[in-house]
Each structure stands twice: as C-alpha cells, then as structure tokens.
Amino acid sequence: MRLKVFLNSSQNIKKTDLEHALKGQRSDAAAAKIGQYRQDPSGWRGCRSTGTRGEVVVSWRPSAEFSGNVYRAEGTVAACPEDVWECIKPVAGGLRTKWDQNVKDFEVVEAVSDAVSVCRTTTPSAFVRIISPREFVDVVLMKQYEDGTMLSAATNVEHPQCPPQPNFVRGLNYPCGCFCIPLPGEPDKTQLLSFFQTDLGGYLPQTVVDSFFPASIAGFYSNLTKAVKALKA
Question: Does the keyword Glycoprotein apply (predicted)?
Fold first, then answer.
C-alpha cells in the first residue's frame, strides 16, 4: 500500500514538472516570436498615430497565427523604465486594473516559476457594448535583458482551473507583449514597444474589430501615461 501511494505521488510530481516545463516552453516561444516581430520591420502598415508629432504610432500586418491581424505600437513614455514597468507588469495585485480601461479583473491562476505564471484576464464590454465582456487565459513570461529592457510576453493556454465562464466570451491571445526599453542618455524616458495579437472570439463584424484595436491601443498608451504621472505624484 505504501509503495502504491509513493508511486502515485511520484507520478503526480513528474506530471506537474512536465506541465510546468511545457508552460515554460510555451511562454519562451511567445517571447521569441515577439522578439522576431521587433526585429522585422517589413510589412507593417500604419493605421493610427497620436499627437502632432506621432507620439504613438500603431501599425498592423496579417497574423501568421490566426485569421486576424497583429498590431505593433511604439511610443515614448515620460518616465523611467522602472515606473512604466510598475504600471504594466502582470502580477497579482498589480496596477493594471486601476488604469487600463480594457482590463476589468486580473488574477494569477498558477505560479509556474518566478518568471512564468498562468493568468486570467477579464475585460468589460467595449465599443458602445457591441463587444461583450471577454475572458482570456494566458501563460505569461516576465524577463529582464542585460541592457535593462523589461519584457512581458504572453500567449493563450488551457488550464483546468479556468473553464469558460458564463457571461464571458472566451478570447485567445496569440504571442503578444510589451518591451520597456531604456533610452540612452534619457533616464526619465522609456520607449514602450507593444505587440497585440488577439482573437476576440464570438461573432463580430470585421469592420468592428478593425476599428476597435487601433483606438484601444492608442487609449492604452494615453491611460498609461496618466497612470505613470499619478505614480510619481
């Protein structure tokens, strides 16, 4: 009997280790993919810019992951990378729900490691309620590079503790994330490079989707700028 219990326990540990390894690999692959997007300037088509000097520029190209688009946004935030990261980092009790109008709730479902976690995000209705509330379950990686750049990368994942919930449409994030990049000689500024690649799910007209994302991304940068100012106040 003791041997059977030991074997079952050992098998469960091995299964958990394997699941954690697979999630780590999946998050690493998402980070590698958006790293490729960062290095590849080809094929991006501008769709929105804000400010008289184009402080935030949003562009898109067809996604290779699903039948929608991947969006690229780039702008400079008037704050040091640490403050910008404090506002956007995907952690339990983080600030994102306080300033991002497109994030209603955020929870860490499973801490896979210090750098990797499985998270559930819910969003409110949007676009004059044409887009109903959504939920997303992602494996998320946080990473810092030698040059001080901080990265949050994510992609969709299934998790037994996160079955689809009533009153929400399950959406899927494909490799996406943000780079907080220090600007040499300008310690109080941060280049924020973001990639959004989301299948909202449900039955939405393509015209609604194509209009929603550029406006939503521009709003993300605007609200983040306000949040960083409030953080420093």
Answer: no
